[in-house]
Design a protein that fits this description.
The chain has three helices and four strands. By secondary structure, the chain is of the alpha+beta class. It has a single domain, classed as 3-Layer(aba) Sandwich (Glutaredoxin), CATH 3.40.30. A four-stranded mixed beta sheet has the order 2-1-3-4, covered by helices on one side. A hairpin with a 2-residue loop joins strand 3 and strand 4. The radius of gyration is 14 Å and the shape is globular. The protein starts with 12 loop residues before the first strand and ends with a helix. The structure holds FE2/S2 (inorganic) cluster. The site of FE2/S2 (inorganic) cluster has 12 residues, from helix 1. FE2/S2 (inorganic) cluster binds next to helix 1.
Length: 79
C-alpha cells in the first residue's frame, strides 16, 4: 500500500546580517518577519550594501527590503 506524499515548498528567507544591512534595519526586519511566523535565516554580506537592507527569498534579491516587500514576494511565489 502506498501513501500519498506531499511536498511542502517553504521559501528560504535570508536576511543579510552584514554591517550595512544591520545598520539599515535588517535585524529589526528579521524580527518583524519572525513575528509574522516566518522562518528567517541570517545571511552574509552579498556586496549589495548600497541596497540595504537586503533580503533574499529563494535567492531572489529584495533591495531596500521591508516587511511588505517580503510578504508580497511570498504571495507571488504562492500564486
Ligand atoms: S551588508 Fe548586506 S549586502 Fe552588504
Amino acid at each position: 500500500m502506498s501513501t500519498a506524499s506531499t511536498t511542502v515548498n517553504t521559501p528560504t528567507i535570508e536576511v543579510c546580517h552584514g554591517p550595512q544591512c544591520s545598520d539599515s534595519g535588517g535585524r529589526i526586519l528579521a524580527g518583524e518577519l519572525e513575528a509574522l511566523g516566518l522562518k528567517v535565516c541570517a545571511g552574509d554580506c552579498r556586496s549589495q550594501c548600497a541596497h540595504a537592507p537586503l533580503v533574499l527569498v529563494d535567492n531572489y534579491m529584495i533591495s531596500k527590503a521591508t516587511t511588505d516587500k517580503v510578504v508580497e514576494r511570498l504571495k507571488t511565489l504562492q500564486a
